[in-house]
Amino acid sequence: MLELYHGGPGANSLKALLPLKEKGLEFTSHVLNLLQFEQHEPWFVKINPNGQVPVLVHDGKVLTESTVINEYVDETFQGIPLRPPDAYGRAQMRVWTKFVDEYFCPALSFLGWYAMIRTAVRDLSPAEFEAKVQRIPLKEQRDKWRESAAQVWTPQQLDDWRRRVRASIQRMEQGMAGPWMLGSQFTLADVSLFSMLIGMPERYADIVNQKGSPRVVDWYSRMMERPGVKAALAIPRPSREFLETQQKAEAAARGHPEATPRNQAFRP
Ligand SMILES: N[C@@H](CCC(=O)N[C@@H](CS)C(=O)NCC(=O)O)C(=O)O
Known about the structure:
The structure is a single chain. The protein has 12 helices and 4 strands; from the N terminus they run βαβαββαααααααααα. By secondary structure, it is α+β, with helices and mostly antiparallel strands. 32% of the residues are buried. It binds glutathione. Glutathione binds at residues 7, 11-13, 34, 39, 52-54, 65-67, 141.
């Protein structure tokens, strides 16, 4: 029996969803609303003490870390193979998955949180917000929630994360070895990179576009045609819906001082 605890289809959650869908595996999906702190509820922290998604549970065995989950799934289950058959190919694949985990994903994540979190928590008073943050197991994550709500990051930091995102796309553009990242075989390298790229041609049109990164744009279109990708992207996205509701409330309140959000005190 397979169960996946995840957020909506984006970033590390999409990364773990894609191989399950590509292989056509049956699994029970548990979608958490990350912007309402469901991943820090005691019941979930019992499953993953880090209070983060994704988590795969296979016959009662708990697996964390999306990149590790994906290799486990490919090694354990039938269906389309997602790792190259040879050691050198697998090493090349892991260079990309490591690059995503250590460089690309952190840069995107900081920019995403900066853009989202303050709006997401606008209904919470500072005390309510702090009570939620206190439950977060990892200090790094507590800091990240607090810093993004207070928007303390400097323009230089934001510029540097954007630089890293741009450098990541250029590295992909130069490294694309065929229709898929490693050449003719679709692998976990494509899975990892695409999970970060999803939505970028719209949100980062100045970075991902036909002129500056044509091979990446063509690859993205090929990815979007895959039935496994379509199936993964059809998964519910409660965090996104919640954020959109908060954004509408924020827009409606603009210019109405009486509708000032309760988290005013977070603002610098
Ligand atoms: N290294 C972990 C990172 C997991 C991670 O960052 N998960 C994010 C979602 S993409 C999360 O749960 N964020 C919510 C939080 O930390 O409060 C992995 O690859 O699985």
